[in-house]
Amino acid sequence: MATFLRNHGVVARFLRDGADGWVSSGGAWDGGIKFSSKYPDSRYVTTVSETDKVAAVSAGATLVDARDAGEIMKKPLDGSIAISAIFTPTTRLESAFALVPVGTDVITVCDGFVSCFDAKLVGIRLEKRGHVFLGRYVY
Question: 57 with 105, same domain?
Fold first, then answer.
């Protein structure tokens, strides 16, 4: 994550074991983690299994791939719609979200820390558009 932030002009430093490692090593933490307290429901931390993904897609769910475009090109997932909240310019996000069929359940696809956080954000944004977010599938 630190590399991602530095590549986007944010001053950042890698912390082994992240914020939890910082605190357990005696580091001070000022404030709270608002994301987790605002979105505590299980679907925001659920990882969908391969079996559950196949069953949901067979029942009409849509796969929304939040991975970086380069990763999608290396390992495409047939039938998925690529939408990254992090890498899609804000001016294009609404048109990207409009590609998801109205009223469908969605499973977001990710492959690592950044894309899985992005997948959670995409799931939340799609919920606000009327979709049911089932969780994330790690590909």
Answer: yes
Q: What angle do CA 112, 137, 7 make, to 5 degrees?
A: 25
104 with 57, same domain: the answer is yes
- Indicate the helix (H) or strand (E) that contains 132: strand 132-138
* Nearest Cα to Cα of residue 68 among 43, 85, 53: 85
Residue 101 lies in domain: 40-138
Tens-place pLDDT, residues 27-56: 776 666 566 677 888 888 889 999 999 999
Domain tally, the chain: 2
Contact yes or no for 97/83 (Cβ under 8 A): yes
CA dihedral (75, 58, 125, 3) in degrees, to 10, reads -20
* 18 and 56 part of one domain: no
The pTM for the full model equals: 0.76
